[in-house]
Amino acid sequence: MADDDTPLTGSERDQLRQAVRDSPDEFLMSLLGMARQRLREHVGLLVNGMIVIGELNEPEALAALLRVRRGAQIERAERPEGLSDDEWEVMAQDWISEPTRMVEDQRVREEALEEAMEPYGSDSLPRSRELPGELERQLESMRTYSHITLTDATITAPGVPATTSVPVMRIAVRQVSGWWLAPLNEDGSSSINLWDGEPRIFNED
């Protein structure tokens, strides 16, 4: 590997430019990290020409919704032939709880990474050159969210006078071309007003 003083090769320069272009907005990543701490903000997102408004939330919100949906599907399903009632119950519960396990597994991986980072801990994040390569890759993956979870979301499409409301929505970060925070009002609530229409008000008492 070349040292810091060696000029980049053509392929290294191309890889650097690609990485810079594809890197997500650090401010948005910070907001998603705050949602993990239940410090949730209301945001507007520009996604493929549509405006999506909602509260930044955790993946658990989608997992909970999927559990309810799967439970409803199981209630309508027939027990497969060859399975006893007990075997069918175990299989059904395992399938229903899968979304929650997916989130829990991710949390376990994050906790293991935090523990592995302890020898390199300091008041600030450790520099890349201080970390083993594999540990740095895991850390970068944890910092960089691939999807946004929004709750109580509304979608406004160009040329459509009405909006669509969804309880939980997942959006790929790479599809977000712009975003903004809901401005604060004097009473402590926040709101987003589109085209001088009725504003969406959040945190209202």
Shape: globular
Number of strands: 7
Number of domains: 1
* Helix content estimate: 40-55%
Main sheet?
5 strands, antiparallel
Quaternary state of the chains: single chain
Number of helices: 6
Care to describe what's here?
With 205 residues, this protein is α+β, with helices and mostly antiparallel strands. The protein is 41% helix and 22% strand. It has one domain (24-193). It has helices at 10-22, 26-36, 59-76, 85-96, 98-117, 133-143; strands at 42-47, 50-57, 147-156, 164-172, 176-181, 190-192, 200-202. The strands form two sheets. It has a five-stranded antiparallel beta sheet with strand order 4-3-2-1-5. It is globular. The chain starts with 9 loop residues before the first helix and ends with a strand.
In short:
41% of the residues lie in helices and 22% in strands. By secondary structure, the protein is of the alpha+beta class. The radius of gyration is 22 Å and the shape is globular.
Short descriptors:
about 200 residues, alpha+beta, 5-stranded antiparallel beta sheet, 7 strands
Write the layout of secondary structure elements.
Layout: H1 10-22, H2 26-36, E1 42-47, E2 50-57, H3 59-76, H4 85-96, H5 98-117, H6 133-143, E3 147-156, E4 164-172, E5 176-181, E6 190-192, E7 200-202
Antiparallel strand pairs: 1-2, 1-5, 2-3, 3-4, 6-7
